[in-house]
Amino acid sequence: MIPLNIRGLKIGEGIPKICVPILGGTKESILKQAKELDTDAADFVEWRVDWFEEAADLERVKEILSDLRGVLQDMPLLFTFRTAKEGGKRSIGILEYAALNQTAAKTGDVDFIDVEAFLDGKEEVENIIKKAHEYGVKVIASNHDFKHTPKKEEIIRRLCQMQELGADIVKIAVMPKEKTDVFTLLSATDEMYTKYADRPIITMSMSQLGVMSRLCGEQFGSAVTFGCAGQASAPGQLPAAKLKEILSVLHKM
Question: Residue 122: which residues within 8 A CB-CB, separation 6 or more?
Fold first, then answer.
């Protein structure tokens, strides 16, 4: 597996990188969070644009991306519209979703975009990835299962499908109902990493039950973990500073 290098940050090598989401309904809130970010704890930032009240206004989105780049300077920025179907704040049509992601990629202010791999409209998904690459932007293909934890074979199948789409990083998040579900996710991660992955992978088991999966990525093969600087964007996220401390301890063991 070849690590992905974004602004000098090597994803897929060493300690899992910590991503901190920015969640805000207004421009003021979004930029305030960016300015208050603990840059010692975060390796890169995710703007969750589905939280933004004016997400349908492409000009406003471009304006905020420009402002975010000014604040973040050289810190990598991930652009994500998480759909309601996969745990986000709102629904969106596939054509609007495509236009939003392509607009963000074209600005030059984002380093990578998150594309939900199994949205209705496979051709549109493939086109979003293709266009992002044309603009020099990397892609995380993702899938979020808030209902349950699929069997190990199904988790691996989905990750392999995302690789086939041509994404630069593949990601899956699942919901555990019992402790053995967390072990299933970790076992699938290890097998994917050792047998099938030719690019960085991100996996996690959500909720408090799955917190362990956010801590042991280096041991099982997950390249990124998500921590919060305030409000969490998904169940089970730990504060970024505490997350960095734990990851550092595990790395030295």
Answer: none
Which phi and psi (to 5°) does residue 135 adopt? -90, 5
The DSSP H or E segment spanning 44 is strand 44-48
CA distance 224 to 166: 19
CA distance 202 to 221: 8
pTM for this prediction = 0.94
The per-residue pLDDT for range 172-204, each reduced to its tens digit, is: 999 999 999 999 999 999 999 999 999 999 999
89, 82 Cβ separation under 8 angstroms: yes
Identity of the amino acid at 211: V
Residues noted as catalytic: 144, 171
Contact 159, 196 (CB under 8 A): yes
Determine contact, residues 204/173, Cβ cutoff 8 Å: yes
pLDDT confidence tier of residue 234, bands split at 50, 70 and 90: low
Contacts 24+ apart (CB under 8 A), 5-11: 6/44, 6/76, 6/111, 6/112, 6/138, 7/74, 7/75, 7/76, 7/111, 8/74, 9/43, 9/44, 9/76, 11/169, 11/200, 11/223, 11/224
**Neighbouring C-beta atoms of residue 216, cutoff 10 Å:** 17
